[in-house]
């Protein structure tokens, strides 16, 4: 069964068609890179999988069930910038991710549960190479470190699906390469489904097991505002073997 099924999905804002009749089946455990020009609907697609933008038509299923029945904690998300809480230390940020997953209404854990949350957060912080910085605040970290922190926070939820919206877009090439070296083994180890939007084709092909390209297609020549994202190509790289970044 697919981790994510997108069936004849449309997303419309007023008379603007942003996603037009999209169909995608995303296999559990796959790493899907999404590429395409600015404004073609990639972020809208991720927000839809997050449950923030609702399809106006069609069906979106996670593990075969309608999205609204799935807990938020099943999905972790990292944006290009500002995914973490600036007023919390590295450790508190990751603990907060874990607390939210365990206790979505209260958002806090106490006693033994809290100690477990801290232990788990310490492990993740170690895994993303921030152990020495765990008592610092995000502003004291470099851009690459902040994105490592955002990844650790998203993973603290133990998500089935990790959504990455141009997560390394603001980083220099060297730091990006470090992030690739971090993310790929984490994905392989944790067995989650990843959808990553990127403008970097090397990154898309280097990390992805599948690359899906969206493009904006004129929907209705009589109504110039009506464009909709469509899939223009879809490559399964697992048949070709891994492509080095
Ligand atoms: P991408 O991430 O591919 O650059 P987006 O998904 O951010 O593209 O946006 C796709 C289109 O949808 C853009 O034309 C944008 O203006 C429009 N759009 C996105 N969100 C909204 C919204 N909440 N209301 C109206 N239009 C929106
Ligand atoms: Mg975007």
TrEMBL record:
It holds the Pfam family ABC_tran. PROSITE patterns: ABC_TRANSPORTER_1, ABC_TRANSPORTER_2. SMART domains: AAA. The keyword Transferase applies. Gene3D superfamilies: P-loop containing nucleotide triphosphate hydrolases. Keywords: Acyltransferase, ATP-binding, Nucleotide-binding, Transferase, Transport. It comes from the Bacteria. One of its GO terms (molecular function) is ATP hydrolysis activity. The keyword Transport applies. Residues 4-241 form the ABC transporter domain. Belongs to the ABC transporter superfamily. This is Lauroyl acyltransferase. It comes from Methylopila turkensis.
């Amino acid at each position: 069964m697919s981790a994510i099924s997108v069936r004849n999905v449309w997303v419309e804002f007023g008379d603007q068609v942003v996603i037009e009749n999209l169909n995608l089946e995303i296999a559990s455990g796959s790493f899907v890179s999404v590429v395409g020009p600015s404004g073609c609907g990639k972020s809208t697609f991720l927000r839809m999988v997050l449950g923030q933008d609702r399809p106006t038509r069609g069906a979106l299923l996670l593990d075969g069930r309608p999205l609204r029945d799935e807990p938020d904690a099943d999905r972790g998300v990292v944006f290009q910038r500002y995914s973490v809480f600036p007023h919390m230390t590295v450790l508190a940020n990751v603990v907060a991710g874990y607390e939210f997953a365990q206790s979505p209404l209260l958002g806090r854990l106490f006693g033994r549960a809290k100690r477990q949350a801290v232990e788990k957060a310490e492990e993740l912080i170690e895994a993303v190479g921030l152990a020495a910085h765990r008592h610092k605040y995000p502003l004291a970290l470099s851009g690459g470190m902040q994105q490592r922190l955002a990844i650790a926070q998203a993973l603290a939820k133990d998500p089935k699906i990790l959504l990455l919206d141009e997560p390394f877009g603001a980083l220099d090439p060297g730091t990006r390469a470090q992030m690739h070296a971090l993310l790929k083994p984490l994905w392989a180890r944790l067995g989650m489904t990843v959808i990553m939007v990127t403008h970097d084709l090397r990154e898309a092909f280097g990390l992805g097991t599948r690359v899906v390209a969206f493009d904006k297609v004129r929907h209705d020549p009589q109504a110039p505002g009506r464009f909709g994202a469509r899939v223009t190509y879809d490559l399964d790289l697992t048949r070709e073997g891994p492509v080095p970044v």
